[in-house]
Amino acid sequence: MSAAALAGVAVLPGTAPAAPAAASALPPVNQYAAVCAACHQASGLGIEGAFPPLAGSEWLTGRPEVPIAIVLHGLQGPITVKGKEYNSAMMAWASVLNDDDLAATLTYARSQWGNRAAPITAAQVRAVRARTASRTTAWTAAELKAMK
Ligand code: HEC
Q1: How far, in Å, CA of 8 to CA of 1, rounded?
Q2: What is the mean pLDDT of the chain?
Q3: pTM listed for this prediction
């Protein structure tokens, strides 16, 4: 699905039907602009020294488990992205984004700004969510490297 098509899915205020369809029947929504762009920027370039880039990021475009785990539980401490050091923290989104929307958001980011990584499915998100359900702290880069 194209970004434009995904953007067109956004719900406009006042347009909700009187009897909304079951949540599971709603199409997945790409939340990049609403949730991720505040830090990683609409350009995907981030802000040097503060927010690492998603454009060309080896963490985002590698094994699907890694970016799924990052968005579900957050990330903290030193990390090198595209040869540059960051040492900050990103919050967890597990309780905010459902499997469909998290998959759509990561699929969007993995296909923008020159990124050419495979789409991520809701089933993949569900599996990582289940496997890491007991996790209460953000990941470190070292832990994610072991997952890569
Ligand atoms: C409030 C700011 C903020 C928001 C919002 C945010 N992030 Fe992050 N993100 C960060 C920071 C800061 C780091 C680096 C953490 C560190 O230094 O350990 C990071 C790291 C990452 C990384 C690993 C490094 C890289 O650049 O690839 C990925 C992937 C990522 N974020 C994806 C996302 C996605 C997808 C969203 C939206 C669902 C999102 N982030 C929302 C601040 C944010």
Answers
A1: 11
A2: 88
A3: 0.87
